Fold:
Amino acid sequence: MENVKNDTSQKALQINLDAKKYGTFAEIGAGQEVARCFFHVGGASGTVAKTISAYDMRVSDAIYGPSDRYVSRKRLQSMLDYEFHLVLERLDALRGERSTFFVFADTVATHSFTRQEDGHGWMGIRFQAECKCEPSEIIIHVRMLDKENVREQEALGVMGVNLIYGAFYYNAQPETLISSLMDNLSRERIEVDMIKFSGPCFAKLDNRLMSLQLVQQGLTDAAMFTADGEVVQPSDVLYKKTVLVERGSFRPITNTTLDMLERAQEQFMTEPGVQGEEPVVLMEMTMRNLLEAGAVDHQDFLARVDILRALGKTVLISNYARYYKLVAYLSRYTHKSIGIALGVPSLKEIFDEKFYTDMEGGLLEALGRLFKSTVKLYVYPWRDPVNGKISTAENLLVAPNLRHLYAYLIENRCIVSIQKHNVDYLPIFSRDVLARIQTYDPSWETMVPAPIVEIIKREGLFGYRETK
Structure:
């Protein structure tokens, strides 16, 4: 069922009747669907200074400069830069004292006679919140999931109106702004997998929290940002790359967590399909991990992210409780090797049939989806804290009816043990480390990498308090 909280035409009309707002619409691909929404409701002469659609590549290059890709963040940015400079040059002296200028731009690829992939595009707005002030900006990346070109155009028009309306009327409430992007739309039709705010309206805003909001509010199932905090569209990072992922709560990173990743990466780099390449290494936090306490604690989230940042890691936030869904997501962008580093407890969960009762093919279907590509699981051993027995990928006991299936995956090296692991790290668990931090037990410092210890103590993360 689609969200009909706010009517698209009403939004466009409200903007048209606001005498202060005046600007340019620049659209490449999917017609001029956003501008059309404003013309359709009437009163557009109060809002629209100019519309332009530079479809021809040579024309586009002549206006905005050459580009390797026409549907790209770089092209969108050049459109916003050029058109905003132009609107100020032409109109600021004439009406700058009574107008807040804006530029809306998008560059989009939809279904066509020659292109059958899902549509996608970049969309953004640069706007003045007050007359004569420095502009602020919002850019988003969308995936259009309708199978008909006309439906894609319609969804794009609605999304564009929502973005413009949100920028004007919700800029002080970014979480509401994000939610409003899906007004009169549904996830079956469109997905927003990246958003970035900048400028004076958003000077105190952390874009990493806004990425979290995209996943938390259901506009996408996964969002990504780099170690320097820059939000990125996944294809810019993953396209045709080999990928290694470690999933965890990272609350905090422990010696075990880091050893698991480093040893898995060593083995991953020896694989025939990986040799000579530099894999993308992702640290994945799922919403299930973030909701362990019942609600997402933003400060706790940022504490985890800051630690990963110190290690130079790209962060993936996802809503994928099941590993095969993570693989499907990564496979959108690459057909090269994918490695997943995990511990024995997580491997046992993968082979627990109770988690797949909603699937027609049950566990067999889930495993088929997980291993359909060049995917390999790198399994870190686990020591039973009661009897001291060590479980590995090779000696793990699964249900009797799954033993032959499991043996097949082991024999074909779809599942391998992580070698050269540090046995001293096996007794370390994040939950235990966290408890020691919060009860002022200094022994936690031996269980966490030294640089991370320093950050936790300096920033007072995870409830750390210096004892006298």
The chain has a mean pLDDT of 93.
